[in-house]
Amino acid sequence: MDQELVNKAQNGDSRAFEKLVEKYMKRIYYLAYRMTRNHDSADELAQESFVKAYQALGSFKPGYNFYTWIYRICVNLSINFLKKERHTVSADQLREIDLLPETTAGLDQLERMIASEQASIVRKALDTLPPDQRSAFILKTYDNMSYDQIAEVMECSMGTVMSRIFRARQKLKNALKAAEAERDKSDG
Predict the structure, then answer these.
(1) In the chain, what are the domains?
(2) Which of 45, 46, 126, 129 is the most exposed place for a label (fewest CB within 10 A)?
(3) Rounded to an integer, what distance in angstroms lies between the CA atom of residue 133 and that of residue 171?
């Protein structure tokens, strides 16, 4: 279906490209948002991703996956944005990300508070990751991409992807352990 729309768009059918935008805009926006933690920046990056895709449509290779291609564009733009801005996010700018299990409704209040605190720690730790590790982790965890797809999006080897995700997970695990130790210290 995407390939047919891409072919039509390459032949001047702007409505075909609009259909691709409609299909993927929300996912691209959320990817940019998870990278930047800022609505306005994410909105601009998502729009810029589609503008760049439209401008480069002539170089799109038949048989290639449009979804992976537009993700790569967005990831690259987001990484460049983060490097250029050295983007830092205040706690007030953080918006809840669905890091908590869906079953939290059945948890008692203390368990929900602990789960919420851990989610906040993970979000803050995620913000400290280098852009390449953050990208790989987000694509794997939130977008459920395979290592092969992530490698394609990030234009690197699968080994590099696996290494980046491993390092990101280690840093997140260490942040949780440190926060737990700090909480135990203050409780004791």
Answers:
(1) 1-88 (1.10.1740.10), 102-188 (1.10.10.10)
(2) 129
(3) 10
